[in-house]
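Take a record.
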Amino acid sequence: MNARLSNRRRKEINALTRRKYRKDLGQTLVEGVRAVRAALDAGAPLTEVIVAESTRTDPAVQSLCDRASAPIHVLPDETVRRLSDVQTSQGLLAVAETRYVKEAVLLDAVAPTTTLLALDGVQDPGNVGTILRTAAWFGADAVIAGPGTAGLYGPKVMRAAMGGHWDLRLVRTSALGELLQRLRRQGVRLYGADLQGVRAGAWQPAPPSVLVLGSEAHGLSAAVHGTIDERVAIPGAPRRTGAESLNVAVAAGILIYEWTGRGGPAS
């Protein structure tokens, strides 16, 4: 249970809080008992598990370590605290491989019931993680991150997603508009969240389809706006002027339910 962890490897793990090193190493951090349990339940690609000395005898931690096939390192509490990205560490974290699906693979996998969620410049990591969690819960097939969207494997995204990563195919693209056009040519219907769209309650999405969510500040980008087949809106109550708009993660939950949970392609 106490495989050796070199100083070099400790520095690499510590650097995973930064996007550049996550990209270079192809790895990310999974922190806390619930997150590690979700990763193990889903068969996530864990490369190592790190346990603080003070928590090694905790029954929940021991149970997870017994299930892990990756090397397990027991380290001093202070070392684990420095490796952690959270203010109060639970004394358990794991390193997982980051896995992005290539655009060509995504296109080849399009089926009659395919549901793809696209994020067009959604910058807040907490919102992105919540959207991933929601998409996984309602059975979406994949999430596509366009330019300006927060890194899908960042620490805050990982925490907010609560294991949603492992149930989704994740795609990163530098040209979301072009990818959407290629999907359309394969018969995929493109829907976009927009204040001028059809009311969500009257929306009748048809599979296979993509639902695109834009940023809270700017909505859909110019590169994406012209590709959309139909726009869908969530109207607010009349005469409410204090709240400018819905939080994008809240809006995503409502639209994803309408899209997949009630009458959409995955129902």
